[in-house]
Amino acid sequence: MPQGLTNVLEEWKGLDDEYQQLQETHRMYLQKLDEISKLQNNCSSSISRQRKRLKEISQRVKECNKGPSDEDAKNMDEIKEKIKTRPNAFFEMESFLPKKNGLYLSLVLGNVNVTLLSKQSKFAYKDEYEKFKLCSTVLLLLCSFICCFFVSYRFLDAILNFLLVWYYCTLTIRESILITNGSRIKGWWVFHHYVSTFLSGVMLTWPDGNLYKAFRNQFLAYCLYQSFVQCLQCYYQSGCLYRLRALGERHNMDLTVEGFQSWMWKGLTFLLPFLFFGHFWQLFNGLSLFRMAQLPDCKEWQVLMCGLCFLILFMGNFFTTLAVVRQKLKSRNQKPKSL
Questions:
Q1: pTM
Q2: CA within 20 to 30 Å of 245's CA: 3, 28, 67, 316, which one?
C-alpha cells in the first residue's frame, strides 16, 4: 500500500474516532439541556406556589398579631422578617429562569428567550451595554459638534437625528433584555428613552424651512451639551458603581442612567448643576417651540409635537431628580438622630 494512502487512512481513523467522541459529547449535551429545561420548569412552578402560600401566610400573620406572649411575639417577628426577604430572593431566582418577554420585547423580538443563564454572561452583556452607551455618546458628541460649528446641511442634520433614533431604540431593546436578566432600572429612566426615541424621530421628519432653521442651532447646541453631560455621567457613574459593588452595597446588574440616583452622593454632587441646567434647557426648548407654534406661518405639526416631548422630558427629569435629592437629604438628616 502506498505510503501516502497509509497516512490518509491513519488520519481518517483518528478523525473518525474524534467524530465518535463528538457525537457522544453532543448526545450528553442534549440530555443535560433536557434536564435543565425540566429543572427550570420545576423551579418556576415552585416559585409560583411559594408566592401563593407566602401571601396566605402573610395574611394569617396579620390576623394572629394581637396579644401574643413574649416568645410568640419573637417568633412572629422572625417570620415577618423572613417574609420581607423572600420577594427579593424570588426575584434573584427568576433572573436565571426563562420567562415570557414583556410587551415591548415581544413586539420587537417575538417569543425569543433572552434570559442569560450564567452570571458571567449577564455581567458580560451588561459591560458591553455600558461600552456601547459610552462609545455611542462620544460619537453623538462629535456629530453634534460638527453640525453645530462646521456645516449647515439638512441631510447631515438628518444623519444626526437618525443616529439619535438608532441609539435610543437600541438602548430600549438592550435595557429590556437587561431588565429581564435582573437589572433594576425602572420607572422614569426607562420611559425617558421611549420619549427621546419619539422626539428624535419627529425631528428627523421635520422638513427644512424657516422654522426649522430658527430652531436648528438651539437644538444642536442642546444635543452637544446633553452628549457631554452623558459622557461625564457614564464615566463617573461606572466608577462609582464598581466601588459600591465591590463593597457589596449595590446589585451586580445595576446600570448607569441619564440622571441622579439614590446611590449617587459623595463625589457625584458636582453633576447636579449640569443636570438641572440640562433640565431647564429642555423647558426652554419646549417653550420656544410652543411660541413658534403660535406663529401664523407655522404649518408643520412637528413644532408642537417636539415642544410637547421637551416639556415631558423636563417634567420627568426635573421632578425625578428633585425627588431623589429630597430623599437623600432626608435620609442624611435622619442618620444622626438614629445614632
A1: 0.80
A2: 316
